[in-house]
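Section 3.1 - Work completed
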Amino acid sequence: MLTAFWIYVALSNVLYANNMQASLSSMKMEHVFAAWDARLIQHLLLYPLFLLSMWRSLRTGWRPLWRAVPIQLLCALGFAVLAAPALVMGERLLGEGSTSMPPAPTRLERIRRRSGNPVWIASATNFLVTYGFGLALITGFAFYQRLRDSQLRSAALERALTQAHLAALRMQLSPHTLFNLLHTIRGQISWDPPAAQAMVVQLGTCCDGCSMPASGSSRALR
C-alpha cells in the first residue's frame, strides 16, 4: 500500500513540475523546476526513508501522547527536511554524466543563493504534508485490520457461546421435561398451528444429537 502511494506521489510531483515548467517556458522562464529525471531520483532516494519513518511511526503508536507525539513529529520532520538534499543529489547524479564542462551549480543551489531558506522550507512543507497523508492512510488501514480481527474474534466467541448454551440445554433436557413440552406443543396445534410448528422446529434443533430415539418423540406427538 505504501509503495503504491509513493508511486502515485512521485508521478504526481513529476507531472506537476513538468506542466508548471512548460507554462513558465512559454513566458521565457527556463529551468525554474528541476528536470523530471532528477525528481524521479529524488523520490527513489526518499522511498526507503519513507518506509523507515512509517515503520517507526507504526511501532511507536499514539499512546501515551506525551511520549508518542514527539517521536511522531521527529519522524515526520526528519523525513521532510531530507527532500531538498535528495533533489540536489539527484541533480548532481545526473550532472556526473557530462564531461565537456565542469559541473555547474544545481537549480536548487542557484535559487537558494538568491532567495535563501524559503525554497527549502517550501520543499520540507510539501513533503511534510505528503508524509501526513501517508501516515493517515497506513494508520487507517491498520485500524481497519484491528477492527476486522476484533469482529472475527467476537463472532467466533458468539458461536462458541451459542454452542455452549445448546450443550447445556441438551444436558438439562430430561425426559420428563420433554414429555411436558410435547404436551404443550400438542395443545398449541389446535389453537395456533404456526406456533406449534415453530416449537417443533426449535425442539428438533435443541434435541439434535440427543440420545432419545426419534420414534419415541413421534409416538409422543401422536
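Second construct:
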Amino acid sequence: MQNADGRSACLSRRLDEISSFLNQARKGRSLADVKWIGRPPVWDMEDARWQAATSAGRSSLFSPDEQAAIGDVYSLMADYQGQIRIEQEAWAKLRGLVGLEALSEARDASLSDALQQARYSQWVLNIDSKQAQDAAKRLGIRGTPVPQSLSSLCIPTNVPAADAMNRIGGGYGEPL
C-alpha cells in the first residue's frame, strides 16, 4: 500500500489527461497520437498466514483487542484487494482511448463511466490504505516497501506500446 501511495501523482495526472482526451474527442479531435495509457500497479495482499492461524484456532492466543485490531488490518487489506480488481477493470476500458479515431456516443458513455470508476477506486484505495497503515502502526507493524519500479502511468501517452513495455521491464508484460 505504501508503494501504491508513492505512485499516486502519476495516477492523478493520468486521470486528468484521460479527462482532457475525452473532452478533445468530444470536439472531434482524433486521438491517433495517444499510444499508451498504462494502468495502476496490481498489488497482492498476503493474508494466508493469518487465515491459517485463524483456521487453526491460534488467533485465539491474542487478546480480544489484539484479535480485533489484527482483523481490522486484514479486513482493510481484503477491501483494498477487491477494489484493485474493480480499478483494473476500469483501466482496461480506459485503454480503449489508445489510437481512437472517432468517439461515438456509446464509446463516450463507456469511457466516461470508466473514468469515474477509476477516480472513485483511487479515492477508496487511498482511504483503505490510510486506515490499514494507521491500524498496523497502532499494532507496531511496519511495512517493508518493495523496491520501486517505473509505473506504467508515468510513461508519456505518446510513447509507443512496445517502447513503454521495454521501459517498464518485468516478466509479466502489460495488457494492451
